[in-house]
């Protein structure tokens, strides 16, 4: 997504419209003729450049987007995050504070790329934002929705007391947990491991706080907990904390002792801790369940090499100590 060609594009439109050229309209006025009035008062105009899919962005959502903001007659944005491969998620009403942008986002779908013209009352007002934005400025925003999550449901659930949370259907709890896990996965994929860990742990805490009411419900709680422990284990490995990674891997094995991913995570953690026999034991068990898994087999070979190197070093150290203890050989 780029707005660098916007002004030249508008100029081409102007050159093909004799009436508009005669009246000498500005670029924003030219663009406005092909835009939709979102609210009916002319304050927010929208042009869909690339349609999206699915439901529109809900209120109180957290949105992942690329955006660029322009003043009229400027080819360069006064604000943009398109230079970031992984922009941060922005929560409506908290991180997104421009009224027009928040209202515009509510009309968008995942994958959509649209342009918006915001009148001053929906942008920076009659004062502007000196020195970058003059008073009473109309601004253009180009926005692409990469993804969004309905974090409003999470916020509402967490605001409840423990008794109120336990009165909510377990299906609602699991929806909240899945949203938190999706948040964590998004952070993990962007290498924001601390943020990912916090989301996973928050989800685990909500599941632990649930008062079990029946065996089927307890099974659903365990099923939802398993991927969270696996994700926490991997996240701790990324953070360089193999002891914690091992702890969460073992938690996953308590839920499902045959889980190859949990065995693999424990093997990774043991390897980082230089506990090669334990690492081998976990990985051999995993290999028996998935004999052709390339990740398991590759890690098992790595553990075998590290184990052999460790034993060779121990032998060399013992030989050296033995020589030193006996002293030099006399001829």
UniProtKB/TrEMBL annotation:
The keyword ATP-binding does not apply. InterPro entries: FKBP6/shu (IPR042282), PPIase_dom_sf (IPR046357), PPIase_FKBP_dom (IPR001179), TPR-like_helical_dom_sf (IPR011990), TPR_rpt (IPR019734). Its EC number is 5.2.1.8. Keywords: Isomerase, Repeat, Rotamase, TPR repeat. It comes from the Eukaryota. It catalyses: [protein]-peptidylproline (omega=180) = [protein]-peptidylproline (omega=0). GO terms for molecular function: Hsp90 protein binding; peptidyl-prolyl cis-trans isomerase activity. The keyword Repeat applies. One of its GO terms (biological process) is spermatogenesis. Residues 60-149 form the PPIase FKBP-type domain. GO terms for cellular component: cytoplasm. It is an enzyme of class 5 (isomerase). Transmembrane segments: none annotated. Pfam families: FKBP_C, TPR_19. PANTHER family: INACTIVE PEPTIDYL-PROLYL CIS-TRANS ISOMERASE FKBP6. Belongs to the FKBP6 family. This is peptidylprolyl isomerase.
